[in-house]
Amino acid sequence: MKHKTKEKKTLVLAIKHGFAYIALWQFLGFMLLLLLVWANEFIDFAAFFFDVAAQTPNYMRACLSSAAIITASIIVVGNTYNQQHKIISGMLTICPYCHRIELEKNIWDYIENQLNKKPSLHVTRGICDDCLEKVKKTWDDEKRTK
After folding, report:
1. Is 141 helix (H, G, I), strand (E, B) or coil?
2. Domain ranges across the chain
3. String of b and e for 66-88 (b: at least 16 CB within 10 Å)?
4. Rounded CA gap, 41 and 59, in Å?
5. What is the pTM of this model?
6. Which positions ≥6 away from 112 have C-beta within 8 Å?
């Protein structure tokens, strides 16, 4: 029983680490945008690359651009978090023997009862306590006969 719990925790941790990886790249992308905004104020990329007249730095423009980037980053990261939460909360553990699903820790119900309540579900596999005992008895019987 401990083995199954460990597998379930490993799956959830792998998903969370995957989401942390996505958040890291989102953060790095927005940081790069902020750096480009401020670098443009000091270097003036248009003058540097296209040989046009250089402009003096406009710190108000850089602050407004930075505020817009930070606002966009909060919206994007917040939306990503909500989507990740929906994915994790939508996962179900299904017993491969009796096809019941785990609603809460050690509380199982038949999948048909739950499918009528929730239209969009993501399914994983697990084994309920009753079936685990049956399988253990079967394995013990097979070991004894050999």
Report:
1. helix
2. 1-89, 91-146
3. eeebeeebeeeeeeeeeebeeee
4. 7
5. 0.53
6. none
Question: Between residues 16 and 95, which one has the greater pLDDT?
Answer: 95
**How far apart are the C-alpha atoms of 54 and 92, rounded to whole Å?**
60
The rounded mean pLDDT for the chain is: 82
Q: Quick one: tokens of 71?
A: 């606002």
pLDDT digits over 11-64, tens only? 555 555 677 778 888 999 999 999 999 999 999 998 989 988 988 999 999 999
Strands 122-125 and 107-110, sheet pairing: unpaired
Burial class, 43, CB count within 10 angstroms (exposed 0-12 / middle 13-18 / buried 19+): middle
Q: What is the DSSP letter of 91?
A: E
Query: What gap in Å lies between CA 81 and CA 89, rounded to an integer?
Result: 12
Asked whether the predicted pLDDT for residue 6 surpasses 70, the reply is no
Q: What percentage of residues in the chain have a pLDDT greater than 90?
A: 27
Residue 8 structure tokens: 């379930």
Asked whether the CA dihedral 54, 59, 61, 66 is positive or negative, the reply is positive
> At residue 145, what are phi and psi to the nearest 5 degrees?
-75, -25
Parallel, antiparallel or unpaired: strands 91-94 and 122-125: parallel
